[in-house]
Amino acid sequence: MRSIRFAVAILIAAVLAAPLGAAAAGSAKPTRNTVIFVADGLRYGSVTPERTPNLARLKQAGVDFTNSHSLYPTLTTVNASAIATGHYIGDTGDFANVIYTGFPVAALGGTTLPFLEDNEILDEVSAHFGGNYLNETSFVDAARKAGFATAVIGKQGPARIQALTAANDNSGTVIIDDATGNKGGYPLPPDLQKAMTEAFVTPGTPPVSVPNYTQQVYLAKLAARVVLPRLKASGKPFVLVFWSRDPDASQHGTKDSLGEVRPGINSPTAEAGVRDADTAFGMILDALATLDLDSNTNIFVTADHGFATIARQSATSVAAKPAAQKGAPGELPPGFVALDIASALKLPLYNPYKNFARIAYEKGETPSYGSAHIGGSAKHPDIIVAANGGSSLIYLPGRNARERARDVVAVLMKQDYVSGLFVNDGLGKIPGTLPMSAVGLMGSAKTLQPAIYVNFRSFSTGCPDPLMCTAEVTDSPLKTGQGMHGSFSRAETRNFMAAIGPDFKTGFADPAPVSNADIVPTMAHLAGITLPSKGALKGRVIGEAITGGEPVTATRKRVASAPGPDGLETVLDMQMVGETPYFDAAGFPGRTVGLSP
Q1: What is the set of domains in the chain, with CATH numbers?
Q2: What pairs with residue 484 in β-bridges?
Q3: pTM as predicted
Q4: Taking 90 as the threshold, does the pLDDT of residue 321 lie above it?
Q5: pLDDT at 575 over 50
Q6: Which helix (H) or strand (E) holds 472?
Q7: Checking CA distances to 250, which of 215, 257, 453, 578 falls within 20 to 30 Å?
Q8: Contacts of 197 (CB under 8 A, 6+ apart)
């Protein structure tokens, strides 16, 4: 098998030679293959020649997107929906990893607040919303309908989102994830099973581990030895999406500094997860060269979001008091947002994951995973909190939503863990908050719109690059010292993005802002695939990165709310390329890493 270094050299040679060869032959441009590789949770600063040789060579040889962006909230399924469709979240309706569906989800015991990283849950939610809860066509689905061979491999949840309308029997798009061969996995056709046996790839994906090396290598082998040869043998142009669970899994699960924010996600365990992603990418890149597919394949590498280390301290939260009595002074328990709101408004609290049982928060009981129903009745509440790591979503399903919105905002403005609030445009302007439309969260979505987004405080733990040592308050069962994401810090909107292939420039550092919503418009354009759209919140074709493309002009913009209590203002730093927005950071000045003073 050829070396990774040689594979990259072949790619560079193909990029340089293809335009001249096509012109000399006078032939039409061939239909391109597409590979999209998503390294879940990979920070831009994590990619170095020493740590990630394959990814570092990629960005040096191809296009290095030096001004990259995740979409807010910086969560996996949120950005999976943008990577799949090229639309912002107001259109896709994938408002967070945990959303309020408005109906009991049978696949998760009848809760109304499902975690979307699950095939059975995604299929049920999609069925409820007309067969496609995103309400937009994904690139993979469009490619399949256009006659391309298509496959998605990797992390359960975001993998399915890439091909949401594909049959779940693998008869069209091949979907292989960490559920394959396990509960919730889709059955493999006989010819694929036979090819796996012949390639010495046993059926059944290994479980997730920390670091996630075993699973990563298994899926990468499957892609390199089975799926890519199968795609080539089809005789059709193809689209392959590979969603690497690492470094996300290892950064979440690291226990090298429990109770301390340093080294946090810069620990040996987390660093091993970064190397896992690089190894998987190298195996795929090498297979493309071995199969002589590299000269006609455009490759785009991205991360769904950046990352931060968890910090669970608060001096203002009532929710921290029961934990303090148990020997963890000021430590926030899971569900602290719901606990603080219920306590301040003197409303009952219910657990949506335990048959909506009453939570005796006055006795120190807390929600199982952070999310909760508040007030009204257990199944018909006034307020719903969907906990999502570095941000929480508030839903107000009752008729008194406008009044409740102001009550909730007043409670949250007093908390030191809050850094910025975004309120549904339909609820009117509230001092200290910005409208959700300001960050692309109001569009044509089918799913239920949240009323309020709560962004949590982030801070640097002290290093030369603050984006590489950011800590944040998070609402999740994970502990201080482990990893999380979801907030509006630049450490989390700053993801890794790079591209290479016959249609991309070589050795080009792109200074213009780009985001995960730009990937599909660009790759569909290069593959000659038309994507229908229902919503208007779309990314752009990254023309300046394409061979022969011209530079684009970007402008910076700062948006600030009217002052709220104590002069608190939600501030948004953003960039624009034409009408396309890119969100850098947002929150209360002094409480969000990367936000301008």
Answers
A1: 4-307+489-508+518-545 (3.40.720.10), 310-477 (no CATH)
A2: 308
A3: 0.95
A4: no
A5: yes
A6: strand 470-472
A7: 453
A8: none
